[in-house]
Automatic annotation (TrEMBL), chain A:
Pfam families: BPD_transp_1, OppC_N. Residues 288-480 form the ABC transmembrane type-1 domain. This is Peptide transporter. It is a multi-pass membrane protein. It is found in: Cell membrane; Membrane. Keywords: Membrane, Transmembrane, Transmembrane helix, Transport. One of its GO terms (cellular component) is plasma membrane. InterPro entries: MetI-like, MetI-like_sf, OppC_N. Its main location: membrane. The chain crosses the membrane at residues 23-43, 292-317, 337-364, 406-431, 458-483. GO terms for biological process: transmembrane transport.
Automatic annotation (TrEMBL), chain B:
Its main location: membrane. This is Peptide ABC transporter permease. It comes from Thermococcus profundus. GO terms for cellular component: plasma membrane. PANTHER family: BINDING-PROTEIN-DEPENDENT TRANSPORT SYSTEMS INNER MEMBRANE COMPONENT (PTHR30465:SF45), INNER MEMBRANE ABC TRANSPORTER (PTHR30465). The keyword Transmembrane helix applies.
Length: 494, 347
């Protein structure tokens, strides 16, 4: 096949492809996907995979909350995330010589059904001279619209880098329970009397933002009322004030220039968060990279190997063909997933390049078998015979005369095999065997499965990664079937 | 070459592949198990050093200590099967596997330690779920595919094609997760988990199986329909179909009697491989549905280092695949006498 002929047939092919509507749709999707994958650091944030594995980074994010646009579909609107710094108009810092008071106003408007999921205060910079016995102490109170004040933290020693996490800290949960118990029953209990389940399971932020007036609830006795406020609180709307007081003993100093007060939302971002508070939107975008790279590489390599193997086998014929086909059968008969699991288990974690290699090793056999049967027909054609009569070697005939005939078929196979490779990689990641240094859709689904997200109804965690896989798959299937239709005119007449 | 001779040749070939595959599998799994056992032996020897060994060293002296240590090591080697050579062990394992003797598992499952019994205990569960689902998929897929091929370009054909392309790119296990979320969690029509309890009645079992079966059928039947459609469209353009129509045969007879029969070989191959493949279960999907089939057994055995179960299951699936190959060849040769394969054609 000469270069000019090749060029001509290629441009003819391109013209035909342009007429395939679904193929063009696939091509547009592919371009879109490549752009998204390439621009992931710009669209979301750079170095995301490093942040993904760092739980510290996700401290100020709410855990397992749906995306912001979820509010459009529910009558009970959920509060979004609010972050305040020293410069925010509703933050007042009153810095005295020996003490400091920070007041943060938070307006819980009537539009929202529940209060925030938690409050996180961080960014204290404490200087204590070496050897000093004194340490700054911090107290946190929440002043509610009904005039009551909840003491959350009292005189806790403060150090740099410390954060106050209302909603996660067990002691704060206890303090909330003690306050609630006192408001309702009038009795004061000690922290040891707080039920364990309150600390471990219950959401103690909701009672903070709840009506405690008995008339709002159905329970008549006091202890029943406490339980009801915890399990089914009526939200109290209005303006709350978070009051932080810090004492600064002799020669110590506290700076709050970097203060961040986060009222954790009950919805977050474009795609919600997972159980560590990680932003799923960014993860989905970054996951497309791995998916595309692995899908295309694996499919390309296994198609090349398969076609060369099949054509060689067909051309050689006789005993060589039998042996090559037995080797092919050997590879197909071995169940690939268990072997991959075994290798993954012995190696700990498989790097991406190794995943590609393994998927190629277990992915070329079908293509080899089909291209062999196609090559058997080509082999009988007179020009191959002519080439042999002219003294062309085996390699020359295979690579120069037979392989180019299979080239169009190869393109269709490459496209149609990408979804299979993408699903295989996702399956490995789903089993927890993927590359831990990268973010993949399979890994997101692995976490979702481990945390039984499907049986808890966290749709925003399960749906997007699978849709991502489906979109990548669909893109290549559309392209592949369009190519197939051009190459198999029988299917096209319609 | 006659059909019988051809068949014998194919079976012998398959057996050869089976032996080699079993040898490779055994080598791989035995290697992993030995590495595992070596570290266990090392661990145990070290703890012996710190307890018994220390006492002997103090009371009876250095020499006695080394003698005792060698004996202890010998015993441990025997305990962990490390006293035999690697290849000897591999060949032993291969021989036994070929005779369907997979030895004992370390933990007892369902009251037995015999790996063969364990495999045959899990097998019916996979059949109940996956073979049922495969049969439904095949019937639905072939029927719809033939219908679509009959009226190509129609709305039905187009929507079937689009559906097939969509489901082709969906991972089955993810679809399972979504179905659990929608039908089990949100709508509450099905239980969240599909593992059977001893108290379950037949109706309970059907109720638990419904969602997994639905998932597999949903994901797979589009692909079946689409493939059948493409094969049928090719066949329907053959001259003999035109001849049959010209003869005035009823359309039903043309399609099901002539066209489908001519298109049968590739479809039959698909049927054979799907049916045999369904016996092996599915590692990931069974986890999603918490269904205790062959896939779950495989996963558990891989995770807990139950080498004998892993070898047994792997051998089982290799046998399934190779018998599929032989069966397909047999039926191909039967349906289409033109088939000649490689060197065997020259015999």
């Amino acid at each position: 096949m000469r270069w000019v002929d090749f060029k001509e047939s290629l441009s003819e092919f391109a013209n035909e492809f342009k007429r395939e509507k679904t193929g063009m749709l696939g091509l547009i999707l592919l371009i879109l996907l490549v752009v998204v994958a390439a621009a992931a650091p710009i669209i979301t944030e750079p170095n995301f995979p490093d942040k993904w594995r760092d739980p510290q980074y996700w401290e100020a994010y709410p855990q397992t909350v749906p995306p912001t646009w979820y509010n459009m579909f529910t009558s009970k609107d959920l509060v979004p995330q609010q972050v305040y710094t020293v410069d925010s108009p509703n933050v007042h810092v009153d810095n005295q010589k020996r003490s400091m008071t920070i007041e943060v106003q938070y307006n819980l408007s009537d539009d929202y059904y529940y209060g925030p999921k938690g409050i996180l205060i961080k960014g204290f910079n404490v200087t204590v001279p070496p050897g000093s016995p004194f340490q700054p102490k911090i107290s946190v109170y929440l002043e509610r619209p009904d005039g009551r004040t909840v003491p959350l933290v009292e005189k806790k020693p403060l150090s740099s880098g410390m954060s106050i996490a209302i909603g996660r800290d067990g002691n704060i949960k206890k303090a909330t329970y003690i306050w609630l118990y006192k408001e309702v029953t009038g009795k004061t209990i000690s922290p040891d009397d707080v039920p364990v389940e309150v600390v471990l399971i219950r959401d103690m932020v909701r009672p903070l933002f709840a009506v405690v007036d008995p008339s709002a609830y159905s329970s008549k006795n006091a202890t029943g009322l406490v339980d009801e406020i915890i399990s089914n609180p009526q939200t109290l709307h209005g303006t709350y004030t978070l009051k932080v007081t810090i004492t600064k003993p002799f020669r110590t100093d506290v700076k709050v220039d970097n203060l961040h007060v986060t009222f954790l939302g009950r919805v977050y971002g474009s795609m919600g968060t997972d159980y560590q508070g990680r932003d799923l939107w960014a993860a989905i975008i970054w996951g497309s990279r791995v998916s595309l790279v692995i899908g295309i590489t694996v499919s390309l390599l296994s198609t090349i190997i398969g076609i060369v193997y099949g054509v060689t086998s067909a051309y050689l014929g006789g005993n060589a063909d039998e042996v090559l086909m037995r080797i092919n059968e050997l590879f197909s008969s071995i169940p690939s997933l268990p072997i991959l699991i075994l290798i993954g288990a012995t190696m700990g974690h498989i790097p991406l390049s190794m995943i590609v290699l393994l998927l190629v090793v277990f992915g070329w056999m079908g293509i080899a078998r089909i291209s062999r049967s196609m090559a058997l027909q080509i082999k009988e054609q007179t020009y191959v015979e002519a080439a042999r009569a002219l003294g062309a070697g085996t390699g020359r005939i295979i690579f120069k005369h037979m392989l180019p005939q299979l080239l169009p078929y190869a393109f269709a196979v490459i496209a149609l095999n990408v979804p299979i490779a993408v699903i295989s990689e996702a399956s490995l990641s789903f089993l927890g065997l993927g590359d831990p240094t990268s973010v993949t859709w399979g890994q997101i689904l692995h976490d979702a499965e481990v945390q039984s997200a499907a049986t808890k109804g966290y749709w925003w965690w399960v749906l997007p990664p699978g849709l991502g896989i489906a979109v990548v798959g669909l893109t290549f299937v559309l392209i592949g079937t369009a190519l197939d239709r051009i190459l198999n005119p029988r299917l096209r007449r319609l | 070459m006659g059909y019988g001779k051809y068949l014998v040749f194919r079976i012998l070939n398959a057996l050869l592949v089976l032996v080699i595959a079993t040898l490779i599998m055994s080598a791989l799994f035995v290697k992993v198990a030995r590495e595992d056992n070596k570290s266990k032996l090392f661990e145990e020897l070290r703890s012996w050093d710190q307890t018994e060994g220390k006492k002997i060293k103090q009371s009876l002296g250095e020499e006695e200590y080394w003698r005792q240590r060698a004996i202890e090591e010998q015993n441990l080697r025997k305990k962990y099967n490390l006293d035999k050579s690697f290849w000897g062990q591999v060949i032993e394992k291969t021989k036994r596997s070929l005779m369907w003797d997979f030895g004992q598992s370390t933990v007892s499952i369902g009251g037995t330690n015999n790996v063969r019994d364990i495999v045959f205990m899990y097998l019916p569960r996979s059949i109940v779920l996956f073979t049922t689902a495969t049969i439904i998929t095949m019937i639905l897929g072939i029927y719809l595919g033939v219908r679509a091929a009959n009226m190509p370009g129609s709305v039905f054909d187009r929507s079937l094609s689009i559906f097939a392309l969509l489901t082709y790119s969906l991972p089955t296990w993810w679809t399972g997760m979504m179905f659990i979320l929608i039908f089990a969690y949100k709508l509450g029509w099905f239980p969240l988990q599909s593992n059977f309890l001893p108290t379950d009645t037949i109706l309970d079992k059907i109720h638990k199986l419904a969602l997994p079966v639905l998932t597999f059928v949903f994901v797979a039947f589009g692909g079946w329909a689409w493939t059948t459609r493409n094969i049928m469209i090719g066949t329907l353009q053959e001259d003999f179909i035109m001849a049959a129509r010209a003869k005035g045969l009823p359309e039903r007879k043309v399609i099901y009697g002539h066209a489908l029969r001519a298109a049968a070989p590739p479809i039959v191959t698909m049927v054979i491989f799907s049916l045999l493949g369904s016996l092996g279960g599915a590692i990931i999907s069974e986890q999603v549905f918490s269904y205790p089939g062959m896939g779950m057994l495989y996963w558990m055995a891989l995770n807990q280092g139950e080498t004998n179960i892993v070898i047994g299951l792997t051998y089982f699936s290799v046998v399934l695949y190779l018998s599929g190959v032989v069966l397909a060849d047999m039926i191909y040769g039967f349906l289409d006498p033109r088939v000649k394969v490689g060197a065997s054609a020259k015999m």
